[in-house]
Amino acid sequence: MTTETDTGAGTGTTTAEYAPEPTPRLDWAELAPDVFKAMIRLDAAAGQGLDPRLRELVKIRASQLNHCALCLDMHSKDALAAGESVERIVQLSAWEESRHFYTGKELAALELTEAVTVLTDGFVPDEVYEKAAEHFGETELAQLIAAITVINAWNRFGVTCRRTPGHYQPGQHK
């Protein structure tokens, strides 16, 4: 159990007791190192040619949708290290109501991210794909689709194995 002591300005000391950190189910990266290394290479290849901040926004949004705490921790830290603002990261969960924080290109990428990530709603709608195609050249669009697909794979490893957030350092897996 983690405790934190906060000494207020002359108000005394308060201690907050946090829930215990869960134990991961499985260290898949250690047990399947060739798969982990291949995922690292795939992730690097998928991100080529994409703006690093856009790439991190996409990774954060997919991770929010997939409830992957490890990836949220990791990509929020990487986004901050890439120069992204806290405000834009916080607003991602409500990007449709916070459109004024993002460019048209970023909005198209976020919409495509949601459509690719939440396939239970059906196919990626033509209008979503066409909007992304208006903002991205074919090569960049292919890279964006690859990046969205790869983060979804990472999320599935993270949530299935219950990887623990909070220990990642920016750029650790690059």
Summarize the structure in words.
With 174 residues, this protein is mainly alpha-helical. The chain has one domain (28-161): AhpD-like. It has eight helices and two strands, in the order ββαααααααα. It has a two-stranded antiparallel sheet with strand order 1-2. The two termini are 31 Å apart. The model has no long low-confidence stretch (mean pLDDT 91). This is Alkyl hydroperoxide reductase AhpD.
Briefly summarize what is shown.
This protein is mainly alpha-helical.
Strand tally is 2
Please give the largest β-sheet. Answer: 2 strands, antiparallel
Helix-and-strand structural type: mainly alpha
Please estimate the helix content. 55-70%
Q: Any idea what the radius of gyration is?
A: 18 Å
The number of helical elements comes to 8
> Rough shape?
globular
CATH-derived architecture: Up-down Bundle
CATH class: Mainly Alpha
Give the rounded overall mean pLDDT: 91
Domain Carboxymuconolactone decarboxylase-like: 33-114
Biased composition (Low complexity): 1-20
GO molecular function: peroxiredoxin activity
Pfam families: CMD
